[in-house]
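User: Hey, quick favor. My workstation is busy. Could you predict this chain's structure for me?
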Amino acid sequence: LQEHWLTPAAMNKFDDDFPDYICVGCSAMTERVESGMLFGRPFGGVAILTHKSLRGSLRIIHCDDRFAIVKIFNYLVISVYLPCVGTPDRFIICENIIERIGSWLDQYDDCEYIIGGDFNVNLNDNHEVARCINDFIVDRHLHRCDELFPSSASATYINPSLGHSSYIDYMLVSRADVLLDFTVTDPNLNFSDHVPLMITIICEGKSCENYEEKERYFSQLRWDKADLAAYYA
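Assistant: No problem, here it is.
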C-alpha cells in the first residue's frame, strides 16, 4: 500500500479494520505532527499487509515513510512510494531511495524480489527519474510485470474529473518464470485515483497453518445520498 495518509497515532486503524492481517508500515507525517498544530490535507505513508496465516514465515526487514520491506519465505517484498512532480529535490530523493533499496538487496542476495508501488513516473518516458529506475531494473536483472503481460497493462492513475490518466504504478519481479499472472484491476469499491495491481507468483516455502476464510461484508457510502450542503458547511 502507498499513501495511506495516516498519522502515527492512527496507524492502529490497519489492525482494527484488517484483523486478519499483520501490518508493517509507517506514517509520513511524524515530522508534521511534531512541529505543531496539524492543518491541511494528510499525505504519504507506505504499508505492507501480510495474511496472518503467513506469520511464521514473515520477517520485518525495514520500514520508513517511503518504502517498507518484509521477507516472506524466499522473497523480499518491497512497497515503495516515490515523490511526485513538484516535490523539492525530487530526483535526489528518488536516487537515494533506489540506492537504499539496492543496499538491502545486496544483503539478501540469496532471495527473490517483488517490488511494487507508485513510482510517480512513466518508465517509458525519457525522464531523469525514469532513467534512474530503469538503470536499477537493468542492473538488478528485474522484470516489469506489465512487459511480461502487455495485454494486461493499462492506465494505473485515472482522474475522470480532470480528464487525466497515466501509467505510473509498477510491479517488478526478479524471476519471470515464477510470475503466473499480472492484472491492473478496476474494483467498484475504490475511492482512490490509483487502481490496484495484482500479481500471482509461485513461492517456495513450507506449508502454512490452515486458515478458515471468513465471509466479510462492506458498506459503501454514496455521495448522491449524502447531505452535501451540510458537508460543505
